[in-house]
Every structure is written in C-alpha cells, then in structure tokens.
Amino acid sequence: MSEIAGILPDLLEQTGIMLWMVALSLVLGGVGGLVIGTALYVTRRGGILQQGALWWVLNVLVNTFRPIPFIILLAALQPIGRVVVGKGIGTEYAVFAIAIAATFGIARIVEQNLVALPAGVVEAARATGASPWRIIRTVIIPETLGPLVLGFTFAVIAIVDMSAVAGLVGGEGLGNWAVTYGYRQFDEVVTWSALIVVVIVVQLIQALGNALARRIMRR
Amino acid sequence: MAQHIVLDRVSKRFPPAKRGGEEIVAVDDVSLAIERGEVFGIIGYSGAGKSTLVRLINQLEPVTSGSIAIGEVPISELRGRRLREQQTGIGMIFQRFNLLTSRTVAGNVAYPLEVTGVARAERRRRVAELLDFVGLAGRADAYPEQLSGGQQQRVGIARALAASPQILLADEATSALDPETTGEVLDLLARVNRELGVTIVVITHEMEVVTRIADRVAVMEAGRVVETGTTYDVFTRPQTAVARRFVQTVVRALPEGDDLARLRAKHDGRLFTISFTDEGVSEARVFSALAAAGVDFNLVHGGVDDIQGRVYGLLTIAVRGEADAVDRALDGIGEGVTVEEQR
C-alpha cells in the first residue's frame, strides 16, 4: 500500500502525459484521416468528385503505411520528424509519428463508414443542385456522424496502444513509465498500476464514444 | 401547349462493369417532347431504362449522345455551377424517399432553400407553407424514421417543391407504398400539377399510377421508347406487344391461353369480345340487338375501366343461337363498338 502511495505522483503525471499525447495525436490524425478518408470516398468510381488518378495515389499511400508495424514506423519517420517538429526524439516527435500512423488508419475507417451511406441520399442532394463541397459538409459527414464517432473511438484505443512505445524514442507517458520502472526494474506494482490505469482510461473512452454515437443516431 | 422538356436522339451507354465485358446501353436513341403543365408517364419493366432516362432529364447522369433542353436551356450542354443552377429548377422524388436522417422534417424541406441561398426567416416561412400544402403542418420537428412511408414521401414532395421548380420528376415514387397511401400520394401529385402548374414526369411500373394521373405516356423497352400517346389511346389501343402486356395488367382485356380454354370448357356457344369507349355507341346496343334477334347470351369475362376519367370496356360474352341470327344481329352495330369473335 505504501509503495502505491510512493509511485502515485509519478503515475498521475505519466497518465496526464499519455492523455495529452493521445488527445493531440487524435486531433491531428483525426483531421488527416477524415480528409483522406473523405477524399477516397468522393474520388472513387461513381463518387461525386470521381478522380481515378487521385484515388489511386491515396489508396496506394494508405495501403503502404497501414501495414507497417508502429515500432518500425516510429524509427523510420525520424528524418521527417526532424524537419517537421524539429527533432527525431522525445514526446513531441512521438506525437508526430502517432498522428501519421493514425491518419492512415483513420482514413480507412472513415472511408468504410462513408461507403455504407445509401447512395440515394447523396443523389437526392445532387438533384437539388448542391455542389460537391456542400454535399460533403451537409450530407455525407452529418449522415455518417454516428458511425464515424464509433470509428474514432476504435481509433483512440489503437492510439493509446501506440503511445506506449513512445519510450523507444525517448518519449514519456504511461507506457514508457511501465517499461522503464516496471519491466526493467522488476517492479510488478508499477507495471500493474499502469495497466489498470490504461484499462480504466480505455473503458471510459469507449463508454463516452458509445454514448455520443447513440445520442447522434437517436437510438 | 409549349414544349417543356425536349429529348433529341438521346442515348446513355455505361462502360462495361468488367474489363472486356459488354457496354451497357441503358437509353437508346430516345426522342420525346414533354409539354408544359402535363403529367407524363414513362412505363416499362425493370431494366427498361426508365430510371436512367429520368436521371438524364435533370443531368444526374450526363448523356452519351443527343441533347436535352428544358424550355430554351440546353441542360445537357451545361456543367458545374451553371448546371447546378438549372437543377434547382427541377424537383425529384424517389422510391425510397432518400430523406436526410440527420435532419428533422423541416430541416429536410429547407435543404434546397439553403442550396439556393434563401435567408433563414424566408426559409422558415416557406417550409411552413410547404408542410401545410402536403398536410404535415404538425410534424415539422419529427425525424424521418418517426413517420410512415406515405408521410415520408410527402416530406420528399415538399422538399422537391421547396425551390419552386417548374418540373417534378417522380422515380417510382409510390412503388414502396401500400395501395391506399399510393392513392393519397397520387392525389397530392395531381394537386401539385393542377394548382402549381408543375410539369410532372412519372416513372413507374404500376399501371394504376399511369391511368390515374398521366395525361400522356411513353412505353419503354430495352432502352427505347416503343410507343407514345395519350394514356387513353395507349391503354385502349396498344400498338406494341409490350404495351399490350402492360395494359392487360389493369384493363382486364381479352381472355387468352388458359383463361380462354377455361371459358370454353364452361360455356357452350361462341365467344365474342365487345370493346367500347365513351366516344361511340354503348354496349347496350349490342345487348339489345342480340335480344331482338332472339339470341341467348351470357357475360363471361371482362370489365369496364376508368382511364383518366374516361370509360373503356372489354366484355366477352358466350352466345348460343342459330349462327345466321347471331351474325346478323352483330353486323353493323355502329361506330365506337367493335365485336370480335374469339376463335
């Protein structure tokens, strides 16, 4: 018990850092994924902005990035990170790498949900003379918002997972803390407290996502 | 009446679904002139190309060849913003309603007004007016899934009319509705045509829809228009095999095949079919002529139908009597009634 009291300040601090990393990379990767996923949907054959060449490029890009194990991507993106965020190590760089991986993962999730939208709804909007951009803003996104929220919730949990290996490049967070002070120092109390906190965080996120989606879909 | 929608040798071909597959000819060299203020029906079996044809009129699909004009505007030549401006003048309703589930009834009806940039206060006034017109004044804040099919289609109609279009395209608009609701929706469409002067193009495989509201009708088969005429003419004197098959589903026409065999087994004597319209002599003349000749007969098949408010009848009778007397009685009955023996 006294040991838990001793590690509590670190536990809370590292949980805070993890949540910050997850939130920031979710926002960045979420926006990127929404843009690329929507672009895949509208440029595909029969889409409102059908554009075979662009679709092909995006599709290959997504298929190239998605299968790369994150721990390898984290190392491989270092040169790009030095250009974009100024360094190839640390928590900021880890956020950058997670955001890249999340962008391509979320892009597929977004595309899959948009494809499920009944084509007739888009056709009805086209028949009113609405422009493609207006249809994206007022029909495609609002009509799929419920499933999109569930898709993003799914993505958050993958991001929590990715944030755990940030320690590889000197990033902080709960995962790094569990590896450095739990695993490497044979301190099972540290490992298990980190694990329990992660499980609680994930449960809360899932509950929040479910509640939000239910509210949007009115069921 | 002036021509409102003119299709001139319009074709639509879709590329093959698979590489090396065959090109699909959905619409094949169709020419049509639809007049301002009329209700024009396009009938045909599934896959005849009627849904594609209607999507060419508002250019949801570009034509492969030929041209389409709405009034003076060559809509098939337009692209981008100029096309979209024209599309706001053509409303469309769908078999599955295609309402936005993320919006209330009022939000759905307001959609075309947002597209055309109508200010919020004016939008609200117009939405209230439209919901009143379609009989849904109290349901403005409901969501589509809280409404019945007929009510959802009313919302679809209100949405289609929001931007005050001069043309309304109805793509199988009643096919997902039960017969009673179909009647209500058709009455509403008739009102749209009568009170607002909107030209309506109705695509359907339901013949009741056409006989009830269409002034004129085109029959499609394999991408081509094979027959065009007033609904009354097409239904009383179909010229093509496909039109005859359609007509028989509503007008209980001539007994054929098994029906005819069954009638022959049940009734002795000769079978005659009398067809008559409201233009000529009534069927009563036939009956009195037979009675005067002392010939006995039974009514065995057929009925009298109402097409666009006009009478059309096809009655088959079994006649027993001396052959000469029967022939004499039926000869020279008069104009407007034809008597044909079923052999």
Automatic annotation (TrEMBL), chain A:
<dbReference type="InterPro" id="IPR035906">
    <property type="entry name" value="MetI-like_sf"/>
</dbReference>
<dbReference type="Pfam" id="PF00528">
    <property type="entry name" value="BPD_transp_1"/>
</dbReference>
<protein>
    <submittedName>
        <fullName>ABC transporter permease</fullName>
    </submittedName>
</protein>
<feature type="transmembrane region" description="Helical">
    <location>
        <begin position="54"/>
        <end position="81"/>
    </location>
</feature>
<feature type="domain" description="ABC transmembrane type-1">
    <location>
        <begin position="11"/>
        <end position="213"/>
    </location>
</feature>
<feature type="transmembrane region" description="Helical">
    <location>
        <begin position="144"/>
        <end position="169"/>
    </location>
</feature>
<dbReference type="InterPro" id="IPR051322">
    <property type="entry name" value="AA_ABC_Transporter_Permease"/>
</dbReference>
<dbReference type="GO" id="GO:0048473">
    <property type="term" value="P:D-methionine transmembrane transport"/>
</dbReference>
<feature type="transmembrane region" description="Helical">
    <location>
        <begin position="189"/>
        <end position="213"/>
    </location>
</feature>
<dbReference type="InterPro" id="IPR000515">
    <property type="entry name" value="MetI-like"/>
</dbReference>
<comment type="similarity">
    <text>Belongs to the binding-protein-dependent transport system permease family.</text>
</comment>
<keyword id="KW-1133">Transmembrane helix</keyword>
<keyword id="KW-0813">Transport</keyword>
<dbReference type="GO" id="GO:0005886">
    <property type="term" value="C:plasma membrane"/>
</dbReference>
<keyword id="KW-1003">Cell membrane</keyword>
<feature type="transmembrane region" description="Helical">
    <location>
        <begin position="93"/>
        <end position="110"/>
    </location>
</feature>
<feature type="transmembrane region" description="Helical">
    <location>
        <begin position="17"/>
        <end position="42"/>
    </location>
</feature>
<keyword id="KW-0812">Transmembrane</keyword>
<keyword id="KW-0472">Membrane</keyword>
UniProtKB/TrEMBL annotation, chain B:
<keyword id="KW-0813">Transport</keyword>
<comment type="similarity">
    <text>Belongs to the ABC transporter superfamily.</text>
</comment>
<feature type="domain" description="ABC transporter">
    <location>
        <begin position="5"/>
        <end position="247"/>
    </location>
</feature>
<dbReference type="InterPro" id="IPR017871">
    <property type="entry name" value="ABC_transporter-like_CS"/>
</dbReference>
<protein>
    <submittedName>
        <fullName>Methionine import ATP-binding protein MetN</fullName>
    </submittedName>
</protein>
<dbReference type="GO" id="GO:0006865">
    <property type="term" value="P:amino acid transport"/>
</dbReference>
<keyword id="KW-0547">Nucleotide-binding</keyword>
<keyword id="KW-0029">Amino-acid transport</keyword>
<keyword id="KW-0472">Membrane</keyword>
<comment type="function">
    <text>Part of the ABC transporter FtsEX involved in cellular division. Has ATPase activity.</text>
</comment>
<dbReference type="GO" id="GO:0016887">
    <property type="term" value="F:ATP hydrolysis activity"/>
</dbReference>
<dbReference type="InterPro" id="IPR027417">
    <property type="entry name" value="P-loop_NTPase"/>
</dbReference>
<dbReference type="Pfam" id="PF09383">
    <property type="entry name" value="NIL"/>
</dbReference>
<dbReference type="InterPro" id="IPR018449">
    <property type="entry name" value="NIL_domain"/>
</dbReference>
<keyword id="KW-1278">Translocase</keyword>
<comment type="subunit">
    <text>Homodimer. Forms a membrane-associated complex with FtsX.</text>
</comment>
<keyword id="KW-1003">Cell membrane</keyword>
<keyword id="KW-0067">ATP-binding</keyword>
<dbReference type="InterPro" id="IPR045865">
    <property type="entry name" value="ACT-like_dom_sf"/>
</dbReference>
<dbReference type="InterPro" id="IPR050086">
    <property type="entry name" value="MetN_ABC_transporter-like"/>
</dbReference>
<dbReference type="GO" id="GO:0005886">
    <property type="term" value="C:plasma membrane"/>
</dbReference>
<dbReference type="InterPro" id="IPR003439">
    <property type="entry name" value="ABC_transporter-like_ATP-bd"/>
</dbReference>
